[in-house]
Specification:
The complex is a heterodimer of chains A (294) and B (225). With 294 residues, chain A is of the alpha+beta class. Helices cover 24% and strands 34% of the residues of chain A. Chain A is globular. With 225 residues, chain B is an alpha/beta fold. The chains are: A alpha+beta (294), B alpha/beta (225).
Chain lengths: 294, 225
């Protein structure tokens, strides 16, 4: 069992509330997954061509200032608890290579023009507090509370899994053929960093989108090729998508209101949203792909 | 009228308070906010109204009370019901009335997949549509569907009977449409009166039952391999 939540805001007036609403939704799903949690926040503000890199320090007390001084290029660092978000202009491939070269002790959770990812093991409430999620503004976000069933409980095995710029995914369920698809992706040069099944889906979607598919086409390929149980919530820079497997054994509730689209494993995560009384609340059907774009 | 507010009370406190009420009491549960496990495991003859949308297992394991939910519910409403009524004014999610042994689960909207899975003698009536695999492995009891049913209706049915007012996407393994008898029409008419689902024409429902081909192991089946 895991809990997933997501919020896609249509009304800019709600942007300042994104983090507060998203963390309330996530905490309502804590019972579904108390071992780890993660959040992706999408926030405008960086110029085109600049990217944020969500970085994990090798341990507490890491000296981010010294790390940035060591870098021989223009990059701004914003520490968030023990982790940090690095902002840098330029091609992400080159930036990731330089990071690997000049700060190999760091792990990169995600990168994107608007997306930041925070995740950790432990109590979801403590994780939201540590990263100040409730204070964050933004235009969309998603979250995951994990009850691990098929791979280890570590930060790297926690969701969201980000596999391309501004693209990430949270998953409730388990894939049964992820090893096969992982090998097939490896043959194409796509490398997974963990043995987690959900990471394979994130890499699979990113792989197909890099080859020209839009999000809908990539998700149709997920339905065609992945075996197992899944409710997936996938976010791209300007899109927010929900898909469930053929059997729909993993729950999902969507609320669509004039000002927002919200999704959660259970309705109780949505019950506190302002305007939920007027929202169209429905359960997505098996194999249906729901996508909202801004 | 007893009033219980979910914002002030834990689920256990609510269920304990409900269980201690004398027969004939009426109760209003407010602010459910999608709360799970409300009004479960009760053996008394009480009338309970839940004012709002509720979560999973509403009215589960009950043996007596009449429960009305003025809203929608999550998974497994009336799960393992023994007797009494669970009426949902809105829609219901998956596995409504799963394994219920007796009583009546009424959904005035639509119900999702696996409605009446493993039904063991209870009755389920849905005014609207039901999702895929409804009636899966239902052993005894009745499911009345006013609207349409999804794929795999009545898969691996035992002795339960399903009546469908609309269309079904497909029948499951070993399910078949059977001739509607006078006693079927009477049974559906009786359910219409109980539920108020007068949009259903009892003469015009399809009866789905088991072809019983899965009841016994067939030695011949192995010859295919």
């Amino acid at each position: 069992m895991c809990g997933i939540v997501g919020l896609h805001l249509k009304s800019p007036g709600l942007y300042p509330q994104l983090g507060a609403r998203l963390s309330e939704m996530l905490l309502a799903m804590s019972e579904r997954g108390p071992d780890s949690a993660g959040i992706a926040i999408y926030e405008e503000g960086l110029p085109e061509g600049s990217f944020r890199y969500s970085l994990r320090a090798p341990g507490p007390g890491y000296d981010w200032a010294a790390m940035t001084q060591r870098l021989d290029w223009a990059a701004a660092i914003r520490p968030v608890a023990d982790d940090a978000v690095l902002t840098a202009p330029g091609n992400p491939v080159a930036v990731l290579e330089r990071l690997a070269d000049q700060a190999p002790e760091l792990r990169v959770f995600s990168y994107g023009n608007t997306m930041e990812v925070y995740k950790d093991v432990g109590d979801p409430t403590a994780i939201c507090d540590r990263y100040g999620i409730a204070q964050r503004s933004g235009y969309q976000g998603l979250g995951h509370t994990r009850m691990a069933t098929e791979s280890a409980v570590t930060t790297d095995h926690s969701h969201p899994f980000a596999a391309a710029a501004d693209l990430c995914l949270v998953h409730n369920g388990s894939f049964s053929n992820h090893a096969t698809i992982r090998r097939r992706l490896a043959d194409e040069g796509v490398v997974c960093t963990t043995d987690n099944d959900s990471e394979v889906a994130a890499r699979f979607i990113a792989y197909h989108m890099a080859r020209g598919d839009d999000l809908g086409a990539a998700l149709r390929k997920v339905l065609a090729e992945f075996d197992g149980f899944f409710t997936l919530l996938v976010a791209a820079r300007d899109q927010f998508a929900v898909v469930r497997d053929t059997f729909a054994c993993k729950p999902a509730v969507i609320a669509e209101a004039p000002d927002f689209v919200a999704m959660a494993s259970e309705y109780r995560a949505l019950a506190g949203l302002p305007g939920i009384e007027e929202a169209d609340v429905f359960e997505p059907m098996p194999e249906e792909i729901h996508i909202w774009s801004r | 009228m007893v009033a219980l507010n979910c914002a002030e009370l834990s689920t256990r406190e609510i269920n304990r308070a409900l269980a201690e009420l004398p027969n004939g009491s009426t109760v209003s549960i407010t602010d459910p906010q999608g709360r799970h496990n409300l009004a479960v495991g009760l053996h008394n003859q009480v009338a309970i109204t839940i004012e709002g949308n509720a979560g999973y297992f509403i009215g589960g394991l009950c043996d007596g009370p009449e429960i009305v939910v003025n809203g929608f519910v999550g998974w497994s409403a009336g799960e393992n019901l023994m007797s009494g009524i669970v009426r949902v004014r809105g829609n219901a999610s998956e596995s409504t009335g799963a394994s219920s042994h007796g009583g009546l689960v009424i959904v005035e909207g639509d119900a999702s997949s696996r409605t009446g899975i493993s039904l063991k003698g209870g009755t389920i009536a849905v005014a609207g549509d039901v999702g895929h695999m409804s009636g899966f492995m239902a052993q005894a009891g009745t499911i009345l569907i006013g609207g349409d049913a999804g794929e795999g209706l009545g898969d691996s049915l035992y002795e339960a009977i399903i009546y469908v007012g609309g269309a079904f996407r497909s029948l499951g393994a070993d399910a078949q449409v059977e001739e509607l008898t006078e006693s079927d029409i009477e049974r559906v008419q009786q359910l219409i009166e109980q539920t108020g689902f007068d949009h259903i024409n009892p003469q015009n429902v399809k009866r789905v039952g088991s072809a019983r081909t899965l009841y016994n192991f067939s030695a011949v089946a192995g010859h295919a391999y």
